[in-house]
Amino acid sequence: TGANLQANRNFQVYYTIPQKEIVSSDTGKSRNRMEAKIKWKVFFDLQCPYSKACWKNIPAIRKEFADTHDIEIHLTSLVFHAQAFTAQCAANLIEGYVGAEARTAFQDECFAQQDNFTNAALGDCKKSDVDNLMAAIAEDAGVYDKKFTKEKFLEKLHDWEESVKPAFIEHKHALQYGVYGTPKHVIDDKLMNETESAWGVNEWRDYLAKNSLV
Q1: Half-sphere exposure of 126 (CA within 13 A, CB side)
Q2: The predicted structure's pLDDT at residue 84
Q3: Using omega within 30 degrees of 0 as the cis cutoff, is the peptide bond preceding 183 cis?
Q4: Could you give the C-alpha distances from 49 to 15, 19, 63, in angstroms and in order?
Q5: Helices 100-112 and 84-98, packing angle to 10 deg
Q6: Per-residue exposure over 133-156, b if at least 16 CB sit within 10 Å of its own CB, e if not
Q7: Is the pLDDT reported for residue 117 higher than 80?
Q8: Which of 173, 33, 59, 177 is closest to 111 using CA atoms?
Q9: What count of other Cβ atoms lies within 10 Å of the Cβ of residue 166?
Q10: How many other CB atoms are found less than 10 A from the CB of residue 205?
Q11: Any idea what DSSP says for residue 83?
């Protein structure tokens, strides 16, 4: 139960608020809304087509399991995706200047335009070509404002403190869980095996119930 406190000069009154109980139809287990949710971390690579397939289902999955799971989005960069780390740096830079919602908008736009920055699409391009493409994606995502301009984006995209270091820390976080492919799911601090990138709500409901993660 949750506890609230009313205070006056000479007395204090404590009262409790009954919490709605949530019962899983699959396991019969119950929890209340004040109980800690199960952590669910999803790791994506912005250049990975399998990550793109999973990303499309995240809004519905978040909505379905909102009462039982705290779903976090994390990025990493697979070594064979040449543009992935630059995209990850861009995402961290945008979050630092404009906030988490802008970062999500950029990530969404990266997946929408993923075909434009595959290895095959860019080939043996110059670093500046990748930077300009990321800047254009950020513009399409609507993340720029008067303080954070396209020029500022390009100036800071490879800045150690503001973009590269945060991306590197995020990448190391993925490696600590043994994330060497994407998308990968870490639920209740454990790396999940035998999952599919295209899974939607129904498949995840069955998987979570089977593995006692609800």
Answers
A1: 3
A2: 98
A3: yes
A4: 52, 42, 23
A5: 150
A6: bbbebbeebebbeeebeeeebeeb
A7: yes
A8: 59
A9: 18
A10: 18
A11: T
Q: Using CA atoms, how far apart are residues 31 and 25, in angstroms rounded to an integer?
A: 12
- Calpha distance 84→82 (Å, rounded): 6
Q: With a cut of 80, say whether residue 24 has pLDDT above it.
A: no
**H-type helices in the chain, by residue range?**
49-55, 58-64, 84-98, 100-112, 119-122, 127-140, 150-156, 165-176, 201-210
Distance CA 150, CA 88 (A): 17
Q: Is 125 helix (H, G, I), strand (E, B) or coil?
A: coil
Residue 109 CA to residue 87 CA, distance in Å, equals 11
CA separation for the pair 81, 51 (Å, rounded)? 12
**pLDDT attached to residue 120:** 96
Tokens of 130: 């990748």
- Only one residue has tokens 């290895």, namely 119
